[in-house]
Hints:
Blueprint: H1 20-29, H2 33-46, E1 50-52, H3 60-75, H4 90-97, H5 126-135, H6 141-152, H7 164-178, H8 183-190, H9 194-205, H10 218-237, H11 253-276, H12 278-283, H13 286-293, H14 297-308, E2 330-335, E3 338-343, E4 351-353, H15 355-362, H16 368-405, H17 407-412, H18 422-429, H19 433-440, E5 444-447, E6 450-453, E7 461-463, E8 469-471, H20 472-484, H21 494-503, H22 510-519, H23 525-528
Parallel strand pairs: 2-5
Antiparallel strand pairs: 1-4, 2-3, 5-6, 7-8
Amino acid sequence: MALLQPKLSLKVSQRQVLTPGLMQMVSVLALNKLELKEMIDAEMVENPVLEEIDETVPMLDQVAGKEERLERAADEPAAPAKDPFNEVDFGSYFQEYLDPGYRTQQEYEENEKPSFENFLSQPTTLSDHLAWQLGALTLESGLRAAVEFVIGNLNEDGYLAASDEELLAAFGEFQKSAGAEAAPVAAALQNGDASDLLHRAIDLVQHFDPAGVGARDLRECLLVQVKAQQEEFVHLYGQAAPEPVEDLHRGFRPEAEASLEDRRRSMEVAALIVDHHLHLLQKRDLKDLAKAAQVTPAEAGAAVEFVRTLDPRPGRLYNREQTRLIEPDVVFVKRGGEWVVSMNEEDLPSLRLSQRYRRMLVADGVDKEVKDYVKERFRSALQLMRNIAQRKSTILRTCQVIVRRQKDFLEEGVEALRPMMIKEVAEEIGVHPSTVSRAVSNKYAHTPQGVIELRFFFSEGSNGPEGADTPLLVLKRKVRKLIEDEDPRHPLTDDQIAAMLQAQGIQLTRRTVAKYREDMNIPSTHQRRRRE
């Protein structure tokens, strides 16, 4: 029987451990200019040793230069004194004081201008817009709570994606968390009227602006918009106005009535197509669509054009994506026939170590704990300044390689872009590919071709004309250009596009063309075909 005994054993292994300084260097390298500025500001608040160099305070060399100039001026003979009478601006004097019209002096004017804060406002979201409309209605407490619940469950496109069962379950939890204010609604839930209450709330939301919000799917969203326009059309033109005794525009009345009838008919056919034949509408097959809807091809075409005026994502009108502020980290400029890379360090704080805290390290009478704290803060500050300098060096070296390899692009445009891999640049500057990846991540360059993300310059290539390589971006642009120039009645197949590119010396297969087309969200050949 084996007994359990304590035993010592040695094991040799290798593992990579990131020190705090190395972790900070990696994180600083991945920051763009705006993020780096925020990080420096936060570090200056936490670390008292770090100070920002004030540009208004003269440096030591500036002070020495000023003293030298003063000494040189003292040795020079003094200039003759000027007559103060000659320095009087008599023109402005007479203009100000001898003008027959009264004018208030500028220093005594009080201009009451509105505060700049009055012009700042938070953008209105879809929920805010719907809640504002709800506030203008007088509803019972239960229905109002249900409408607020429905508004809160709309997605960014304005759709109500949850099922009835999910809504009922979530609505019950919502009322339980509301507390005593939801007593009337809780009674309705116990009586089994919650489903009816939710359906009334959904119907009410679907009558809000913009038309189409609160729909469950695309079909219902388009149908709500069509019905809303039909109701507006009936309200405006449903009742025929009595014909006046003498109508000067009587000759145009039949033409106007025919136009209104065509408009009414197009909305009627559009409602039929959206309700029952939406799958045929997506295929853009007017003949099959007209046959299925039992209308003429002309009526089907007018209805399709009307459907194109509808908004499939009504919520996007208010749920707009916030504009992201972009500031270039580097600038590519041509000086004397050579391309130069320079860092954009405008508004970035210039850091230095505090002299006052440095004197504390050698001063007598300072507690050991205080000195240890100051030493630790000095180490942290020095590490940060080194990492910032390392970030600048890595980005500059990376961009210098980009400029050398992409000179044609900077001078001619995107058609001259050459394929370039991150691994190739990393080998050229002697770093790991992950370092180059972090150096170009979320950073932009100001170039003659515009402000471009640094990752834009890196792409794989395919065999191109005369054995050269063509970047994937250029290949996709060529595929899109061929599709844009095709005949809609006879669209190009993927095989035909591949053959046309091969004729240009670009070796692509049909599957590769199909992949590029899907990446650009371009429909297939059958879906692009338009039949008269």
